[in-house]
Design a protein that fits this description.
It is a single chain. With about 260 residues, the chain is α+β, with helices and mostly antiparallel strands. It contains 5 helices and 15 strands. It has 2 domains: about 150 residues, Rossmann fold; about 90 residues, Elongation Factor Tu (Ef-tu), domain 3 (Beta Barrel).
Length: about 260
Amino acid sequence: MKFITITTDFGNLNGFTGTMKGVIFNITPDAQIVDITHEIPAQDVRTGSIALWRAVPYFPAGTVHIAVVDPGVGTTRRPIAARLGDQFFVLPDNGLITPMLEDAEAAGKDIVIVHLDKPEFWLPVVFTTFHGRDIFAPCGAHLAKGVRLEDMGTIITDPVRRPLPKPSKSDRGFAANIIVIDVFGNCSTNLRVSQVPDLAKTTLKIAGQTIEGIVPSYGHRKPGELVAVTDSEGFVEIAVVNGSAANKFCIRLDDPVEVIFDD
């Protein structure tokens, strides 16, 4: 079975992703296509990279991930494809690949990245404003069909990188930041719970609020209470029980979070 995922900022109004799927099926009729999300905020490369990064580990070996959050479409930015371990990626060279690439490097996985500069793997007519349809979808379909990555373009070693902000150590713990706000208004930080020595003896400060301890889940506090929990990817998350922390406390991406390890 040939799995292809698609992640975009296209939304669902204009049929852009449906058109991409048509291109894929014309090349690889037996492909199984999974939509990760099409609700990435417009041109928000970092949010797109995080959404893809969090989903990739749950897909089987050989999956082809097509991601199109592409504010530089039609410019000199390169279309690229990569093999990172046993997963494939087809996307613009604008930093979208960064967290997956960093993980692959840290794990010592096999890494090959190519500039998709061979038009025989594109659609016959390419428009400068829709490379998702005209370049990325057909290239992803050819990969899923079995074309060797190395045959699809020129190998490169200098992909654009946009590293995610990392928490920094402080005298009392960590200075972290909000990097994900989900549909419920829950706010995930860039600090892994594994970096916290004692969840019960930890104080968090954000948006003028203080949270004592990191609890196992939302139900361990009363409705409306501001809490810290472990999110579904193992990061420290700020939430309001049965509510929206983002809305209630006007929390935004990149907002600072002070994490204090109590004695």
